[in-house]
Amino acid sequence: MAEEFTPKKTERSFRFIRKHGWIIAFIIGLGGQFIPEIGLLVPLVILTLLGMSLFKGMYWCGNFCFHGSFFDQLVMKISPHKKVPDIFKSKTFVGLILILFILNFSRQLYFAITGDTGTVLARVGSVMANTYLVVILIGLFLGIVINSRTWCHFCPMGTMEKFMYKIGKKTELTKNYDQKVTITEPEDCIECGLCSQVCPFELRPYPTLKENALADSSNNQYDEERCIRCRVCIENCPADVLTLATEDEAKKLN
Ligand code: SF4
Ligand code: SF4
């Protein structure tokens, strides 16, 4: 059984967009209530994150996602930061949310396209902006009662990213771009478990990474499709033995 760790709050934003992306989430979600056409930015966001996931897995979620920025920068401050219940991580639940999302989104889009009030762009934009706002509100609620990144465990966009990542891996599109958490010197790991305590996705780079790399030095990467490549474990490792690296870069570290 995987070792249990208590989630720990820590700095999670190391880049400008991760620090301030939440402003864009508010502009789309709230601004779209007044100027619905703003919601038309959402398809662009979806296409970008799906395209990126073909090459880099869930990198978008850990480095660009505007909702993720809101959860990490603002919601985490008021979150009790409890462990996310396993039900929210189960494949059945995650799949169910994706199906419900697609059905509801398609139904709303159909009515927006066939409706007769205002322009079609405003109606479609409004559907997109409302969806964005709903995620802000549900994510905020879950963040206040459980953990700031609870929503992310079953976010339909994340589920689609994982699907695209599988395609990327099969077609080797990931080969030169997919940067995974990599351990540089496993023997220097002091086994503090901090990397696992601070992970927003409650993943366990420790002890997996250390054990694998000690058994086989070429096995020094954390091969986990749910890893959002956010660098939180890396930045918090007191032994400074973690980094993000592509497969080729990791080989050179052996
Ligand atoms: S394993 Fe590290 S990089 Fe991956 S999600 Fe967790 S903290 Fe972020
Ligand atoms: S934070 Fe660094 S030193 Fe601590 S267990 Fe993880 S890899 Fe090892």
From TrEMBL:
<feature type="transmembrane region" description="Helical">
    <location>
        <begin position="131"/>
        <end position="152"/>
    </location>
</feature>
<feature type="domain" description="4Fe-4S ferredoxin-type">
    <location>
        <begin position="218"/>
        <end position="247"/>
    </location>
</feature>
<keyword id="KW-0249">Electron transport</keyword>
<feature type="domain" description="4Fe-4S ferredoxin-type">
    <location>
        <begin position="179"/>
        <end position="209"/>
    </location>
</feature>
<keyword id="KW-0472">Membrane</keyword>
<dbReference type="GO" id="GO:0046872">
    <property type="term" value="F:metal ion binding"/>
</dbReference>
<keyword id="KW-0479">Metal-binding</keyword>
<dbReference type="InterPro" id="IPR017896">
    <property type="entry name" value="4Fe4S_Fe-S-bd"/>
</dbReference>
<dbReference type="GO" id="GO:0005886">
    <property type="term" value="C:plasma membrane"/>
</dbReference>
<dbReference type="Pfam" id="PF12801">
    <property type="entry name" value="Fer4_5"/>
</dbReference>
<feature type="transmembrane region" description="Helical">
    <location>
        <begin position="53"/>
        <end position="71"/>
    </location>
</feature>
<keyword id="KW-0004">4Fe-4S</keyword>
<dbReference type="InterPro" id="IPR017900">
    <property type="entry name" value="4Fe4S_Fe_S_CS"/>
</dbReference>
<protein>
    <submittedName>
        <fullName>4Fe-4S binding protein</fullName>
    </submittedName>
</protein>
<dbReference type="GO" id="GO:0051539">
    <property type="term" value="F:4 iron, 4 sulfur cluster binding"/>
</dbReference>
<keyword id="KW-0411">Iron-sulfur</keyword>
<feature type="transmembrane region" description="Helical">
    <location>
        <begin position="21"/>
        <end position="47"/>
    </location>
</feature>
<feature type="transmembrane region" description="Helical">
    <location>
        <begin position="92"/>
        <end position="111"/>
    </location>
</feature>
<keyword id="KW-0408">Iron</keyword>
<keyword id="KW-1133">Transmembrane helix</keyword>
<dbReference type="InterPro" id="IPR051684">
    <property type="entry name" value="Electron_Trans/Redox"/>
</dbReference>
<dbReference type="Pfam" id="PF13187">
    <property type="entry name" value="Fer4_9"/>
</dbReference>
<keyword id="KW-0812">Transmembrane</keyword>
<keyword id="KW-0813">Transport</keyword>
